[in-house]
Amino acid sequence: MNPGLQNRGVAVGKQILIPPYNGSIVEVPRNQTWRDIAKRYKIRADVLFEINGCQKNPRFVFVPESNRTIVNNAIQSAPLPASNSTPTKFANYPLADVTNIALAYGWQTNPKTSEVFFHSGIDILAPVGTPAQAISEGVIAFAGTQGTYGNLVIINHSGGLQSRYAQLETIKVAVGQEVKQGDVLGTVGISGQPTSMRSHLHFEIRTSSSLGWVAKNPKDYLK
């Protein structure tokens, strides 16, 4: 996962990649891309991309072990516990006011490239600088820059739920910080690689499973 660290020590504070579950490291041939690896191992391309930290052209990719059900070339999540079988409705909204959705959850066509891709959240229209708010109490699991997400804040909530706020302009929280419903996490921006051409907040809801944090349709979880 970390070719540059082979046979070397790791310094305090050094960021390293750690696989979330069992699998193998595969070298990407010179004349191929990680998309070719996804086809070879029958893994949905967007899943492999996310597992490997949203890297554009990695030399090595982590491929999850294949001893799980694969249907229609998509990795299927293990069933969630009964307590999470019914989506939890969050009372709050990630912005002060409900606005329009620029790009919905699910399979979409990229307006810039016309490529079909899986959109793991919703893009909520908002001017740059608009405060992004926590939808519920929880603990900040990540607050920093992450690939195409740009400036990203992740909150782990109770009940195996997680919310993500991406493409932010500023971040106003830190990892480990406890937040309450309505707390300001940062401001809307255009960092990373936004898909929608209009300024927005990229917002996701994820649930814990044997595959890690699996993206769900936010509309099923927001009142």
Walk me through what this model shows.
The radius of gyration is 18 Å and the shape is globular. It has helices spanning 34-40, 45-51; strands at residues 23-27, 60-64, 70-71, 74-75, 101-103, 106-109, 116-119, 122-125, 131-133, 138-145, 151-157, 161-171, 178-179, 184-188, 200-209, 212-216. The strands form 4 sheets. Strands 5, 8, 9, 10, 11, 12, 13, 14, 15 and 16 form a 10-stranded antiparallel sheet that branches. Residues 67-86 have low confidence and may be disordered. The N and C termini lie far apart (40 Å). It folds into 2 domains: 3-75; 82-220, Glucose Permease (Domain IIA), CATH 2.70.70.10. The chain has 223 residues and is mainly β. It contains 2 helices and 16 strands.
Task: Summarize it.
The chain is mostly beta strands.
Do you know the CATH architecture of the largest domain? Answer: Distorted Sandwich
DSSP, total strands: 16
Beta-strand level of the residues, as a percent range? 35-45%
Going by helix content, strand content and strand pairing, the class is mainly beta
Tell me the name of the CATH homologous superfamily of the largest domain. Answer: Glucose Permease (Domain IIA)
At the fold tier of CATH, the topology name of the largest domain is Glucose Permease (Domain IIA)
Count up the domains. 2
What's the tally of helices?
2
Helix content: under 10%
Radius of gyration, CA atoms, in whole angstroms: 18 Å
Which segments are poorly predicted (pLDDT under 50) over 5 or more consecutive residues?
A: 67-86
Distance between the termini: 40 Å
Average pLDDT, all residues = 82
SSE order, one letter for each helix or strand:
EHHEEEEEEEEEEEEEEE
Anisotropy-based shape: globular
Main sheet? 10 strands, antiparallel
**CATH domain class name of the largest domain:** Mainly Beta
